[in-house]
Design a protein that fits this description.
alpha+beta, 8-stranded antiparallel sheet, 4 helices, about 20% helix
Length: about 240
């Protein structure tokens, strides 16, 4: 008898919650809501450390992707989570619901160009999810440098000028793999299909890009499980 009563009450509560969501009036998502939101702490670690490896391993790689179909996903660098539902009760306040059970996970608030939920603050990446790399670049590496008297510019959008042989760059973000003992950068050389992988370090105002030396090779596979810095190919001084 007690079991049946508990099941009935739970069912009635779920149905009541579903009816409440169905009949409530909600505000449509706007451009200020839709996009890729980055934990502010992750961004601060990037600026302080000048390292995507340190930032990725700091435990602050926490992001939200909000789409125009009212779906919201919480994720980290390595993997995504479930697609839940965001419903705005006003222009600035709303709730995150489980899309299957209609259970409310948490409240969400947009304030001064930040997203606030569960006691954390998130800042919006430019140009949607594809702007995440741009936000990372702007944290520390984008800017103008001198290389043997020649001006070289790493732009936030990933393009590179001043080195005739290289047109693009990309910082590695996910270090959950073998051979990831140092920060990695990918350089796109002209007339080459694939990028080349190097190691980088940023100390004070000096950006150093080095070749990779394989310290330990996997026994059964053709990849390095432990790498170290090799020959320096570029040492750039930020202006």
């Amino acid at each position: 008898m007690i079991g049946c009563s508990s099941i009935t009450e739970k069912k009635e509560q779920t149905e009541s919650k579903s009816e409440e969501i169905a009949t409530a009036k909600f505000v449509d998502l706007s451009d200020k809501h839709i996009g890729f939101w980055v934990n502010e702490e992750y961004y601060e670690v990037l600026k302080e450390s000048n390292s995507t490896k340190i930032a990725g391993e700091s435990g602050s790689d926490d992001f939200y992707r909000i789409s125009n179909d009212n779906s919201i996903m919480n994720m980290n660098i390595h993997e995504g989570g479930a697609n839940n539902l965001i419903l705005m009760e006003s222009e600035n306040k709303g709730q995150i619901f489980n899309s299957d059970t209609t259970e409310s996970y948490s409240t969400i608030q947009f304030q001064n160009e930040t997203l606030l939920t569960d006691g954390k603050r998130y800042i919006k990446a430019p140009n949607g999810e594809n702007g995440f790399n741009e936000l990372v670049n702007s944290a520390f590496i984008s800017g103008k440098y001198l290389l043997n008297g020649i001006e070289v510019e790493f732009k936030a959008n990933g393009t590179l000028t001043g080195l005739d042989s290289i047109q693009k760059f990309e910082l590695n973000l996910d270090y959950n793999d073998a051979g990831m003992q140092h920060d990695k950068i990918y350089l796109q050389f002209n007339n080459e299909k694939d990028t080349r992988t190097y190691l980088y370090s940023f100390n004070s105002d000096t950006l150093t890009i080095s070749k990779i030396d394989c310290k330990t090779q996997a026994e059964d596979y053709d990849y390095c499980v432990e790498v170290e810095k090799g020959e320096i190919i570029y040492k750039l001084i930020k202006k």
